[in-house]
Amino acid sequence: MSLTIKDLEQLQSQNPDLRMELVEGNIIVMGPSYYESDEIGSRLLTFLNIWVMPRKLGRVTGSSAGFILPSIENDETGGDPEKRNLRAPDVSFVRAERLKKTQRDFVQLVPDLMVEVKSKSESPSDTLCDRIKPLQEKIKLFLELGSTVGILIDPDKVLVTVYRPNLEPVVLKNNDKLTIPELLPGWELAIAELWPPEFD
Known about the structure:
Elements: H1 5-14, E1 19-23, E2 26-30, H2 35-55, E3 58-61, E4 67-68, E5 86-87, E6 91-95, E7 113-117, H3 128-145, E8 149-154, E9 159-163, E10 170-172, E11 177-179, E12 188-190
Parallel strand pairs: 7-8
Antiparallel strand pairs: 1-2, 3-6, 4-5, 6-7, 8-9, 9-10, 11-12
């Protein structure tokens, strides 16, 4: 049976502590994030908002914001939002002109920027590829649907990979700076600032 966004909303109301996505008619349940992964996402969200909010450039959201995505193919489900995929990146940015007023519901658009933070491996048999590949595929999907930039943060390797349509991914290391000139001209972030500090 192919599930819909209404099914997801009902299940979400019964389980408010769980994060869920709707992918090809299947509800994907995601438990709480590991602390470090969520802190990294929160740090990036904060750094983005410090730049975005005073300039009124758009809206930055975290991992609970759901996006109803357009259909890749113009098929019979393309016009029915209930049957489309609903995904939630760890961090997203939407330009102001595309979402002039916030919504109390899921939004039917593709964010201009989407970010995924890799969680830690569960066991020795849970390989790096097992964790990275679904995130890479998710970023690829968003880029195909219209996102301008996708970012994958890997705390294990202390790397940030930046994806853009029709371009080779750019890998940034700890001494590099992240810039997104096509969306946020003038903004930059030292990669080292993403990683949570150790306190004395």
